[in-house]
């Protein structure tokens, strides 16, 4: 019985943490995406909502919108280069929730920053980085 309760509590803790990271990402996209609308030609609130819903950006306006969000969050510079410090700062609040989950999330962000090629135009890099974070995060079980 104790074993079942322990496993259930671990599962619930993982759901809370996953929800926390997802909520952080969705809140950042919603807030910063709204700010980026005036800086991204042709982007609309519908594009912001698609990003919040983790719809993969494929249009130029959506790619540039996610890049603007990354830039405002400190994860990309104005030339499209990925910035490790910005990724680390983004996941830092998770440290208060669960240190193991924070470490996994931190390693994931660092891995994406270090492996996504940032030799292309900024909006292409932003799309690649977004794919790595979202798709890889789902594969690793840190995002739903």
From TrEMBL:
Leader peptide range in chain numbering: 1-17
Care to name a GO molecular-function term for this sequence?
odorant binding
State the superkingdom.
Answer: Eukaryota
UniProt keyword list: Signal
* TM stretches of this protein: none
Question: Is the keyword Signal assigned to this protein?
Answer: yes
Pfam families per the UniProt record, alphabetical: PBP_GOBP (PF01395)
* Name recorded for this polypeptide: Odorant binding protein 14-like protein
Which species is listed as the source?
Anomala corpulenta
> Gene name?
OBP8
């Amino acid at each position: 019985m104790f074993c079942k309760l322990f496993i259930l509590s671990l599962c619930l803790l993982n759901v809370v943490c996953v929800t926390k990271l997802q909520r952080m990402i969705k809140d950042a996209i919603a807030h910063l995406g709204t700010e980026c609308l005036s800086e991204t030609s042709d982007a609309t609130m519908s594009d912001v909502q698609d990003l919040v819903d983790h719809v993969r950006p494929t249009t130029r306006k959506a790619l540039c919108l996610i890049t603007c969000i990354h830039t405002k969050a400190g994860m990309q510079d104005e030339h499209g280069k990925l910035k490790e410090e910005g990724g680390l700062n983004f996941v830092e609040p998770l440290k208060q929730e669960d240190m193991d989950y924070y470490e996994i999330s931190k390693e994931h962000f660092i891995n994406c920053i270090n492996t996504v090629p940032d030799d292309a135009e900024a909006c292409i890099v932003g799309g690649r980085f977004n794919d790595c974070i979202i798709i890889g995060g789902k594969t690793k079980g840190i995002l739903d």
